[in-house]
């Protein structure tokens, strides 16, 4: 078995790989975010307003006023890029402090998906079949991976919610693009939900952006429901993005069942 992904608990040193992976994911969404911001109503309103001011109050020729269009496009591009950089910096700060934020008490945790694969691969990871397993399953299998390359390809964390009584937040659910649609994200989410059930949480909430359509589909398949939608401003109303807050309701009988039949949703 030469291609394996193991979901395991976070270990010191993982932050370097997690930080780079999540930063790359945020920056790869830049093009989609730029196009979305470019076609927002507020962008067209800004173009028209600036052109009207130049034409009416300064008496500039109409052809000169049209120059406002590429200027606004450039401002949108720069603002979107700066927004992505700010989000990446915020995420970087959180990942750097995973031991303090996620691993300092029994009611929160952080997991990574670690791929074991040959050092030399003739094709992209997306073209190979990977066996996905938990850390316990990996230990029980006694598979020798001493000659395999290791790379972190996914993350997920769970924290106690400060907004909902007995509620949990699932955060940083991410799988590197080359390893998606193999079951990695599904097992990461299942492990986080099982942890929430075992710790007696009443619900688990999760927020995804408008650019994470695949992640939302996975959550809905797991039983999440849409709680609310809202826009988060990064740099004013012109540079904002739509967020979906999803919730997973944990029934009381699920808590009892998890105590008597552990790992019931994995």
UniProtKB/TrEMBL annotation:
<keyword id="KW-0472">Membrane</keyword>
<dbReference type="GO" id="GO:0008080">
    <property type="term" value="F:N-acetyltransferase activity"/>
</dbReference>
<keyword id="KW-0812">Transmembrane</keyword>
<feature type="transmembrane region" description="Helical">
    <location>
        <begin position="101"/>
        <end position="120"/>
    </location>
</feature>
<keyword id="KW-1133">Transmembrane helix</keyword>
<feature type="transmembrane region" description="Helical">
    <location>
        <begin position="42"/>
        <end position="60"/>
    </location>
</feature>
<keyword id="KW-0808">Transferase</keyword>
<feature type="domain" description="N-acetyltransferase">
    <location>
        <begin position="93"/>
        <end position="249"/>
    </location>
</feature>
<feature type="transmembrane region" description="Helical">
    <location>
        <begin position="67"/>
        <end position="89"/>
    </location>
</feature>
<protein>
    <recommendedName>
        <fullName>N-acetyltransferase domain-containing protein</fullName>
    </recommendedName>
</protein>
<dbReference type="InterPro" id="IPR050769">
    <property type="entry name" value="NAT_camello-type"/>
</dbReference>
<dbReference type="InterPro" id="IPR000182">
    <property type="entry name" value="GNAT_dom"/>
</dbReference>
<dbReference type="InterPro" id="IPR016181">
    <property type="entry name" value="Acyl_CoA_acyltransferase"/>
</dbReference>
<dbReference type="Pfam" id="PF00583">
    <property type="entry name" value="Acetyltransf_1"/>
</dbReference>
